[in-house]
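Reminder to self: C-alpha cells first, then the designed residues, so the page reads top to bottom the way the pipeline ran.
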C-alpha cells in the first residue's frame, strides 16, 4: 500500500466514525426534546383535567346551594315564587356559563399538547 492509499483509508474511516457517532449525539438531543415535550404535555393535560373537574365540582355545588335556597324561600313564602324563580334561573345560567368557560379553557390547553 502506498502512503497515499493509507492516508485516504484513514480519512475515510475517520469520516465514517464521526458520521456514525453524530447520529447518536443527535438522537440524544431528540430524545431530550421529546422527553421535555412529553413532560410539558403531561402537566398541561393534568392542568386541563383539574380545570374542568374543579369547575364542574364548583358549579354543581353552587347550583345545588342555589336550588336549596330557592326551595327554602318558596316553602316559607309561596307567593314570592314567581319573582324568586327568575333570579334563580339567571343565577343558574351564570353558574353554568362559568363551567362552560372552564371547559373552553381545558380544550385550549389540550390543543397545546398536540
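Designed residues (114 positions):
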Amino acid at each position: 500500500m502506498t502512503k497515499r492509499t493509507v492516508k485516504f483509508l484513514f480519512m475515510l474511516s475517520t469520516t465514517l466514525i464521526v458520521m456514525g457517532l453524530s447520529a447518536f449525539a443527535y438522537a440524544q438531543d431528540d430524545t431530550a426534546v421529546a422527553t421535555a415535550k412529553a413532560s410539558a404535555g403531561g402537566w398541561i393535560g393534568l392542568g386541563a383535567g383539574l380545570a374542568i373537574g374543579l369547575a364542574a365540582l364548583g358549579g354543581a355545588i353552587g347550583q345545588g346551594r342555589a336550588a336549596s335556597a330557592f326551595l327554602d324561600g318558596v316553602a316559607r313564602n309561596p307567593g314570592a315564587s314567581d319573582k324568586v324563580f327568575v333570579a334563580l334561573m339567571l343565577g343558574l345560567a351564570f353558574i353554568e356559563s362559568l363551567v362552560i368557560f372552564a371547559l373552553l379553557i381545558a380544550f385550549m390547553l389540550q390543543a397545546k399538547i398536540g
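The mean pLDDT is 82.
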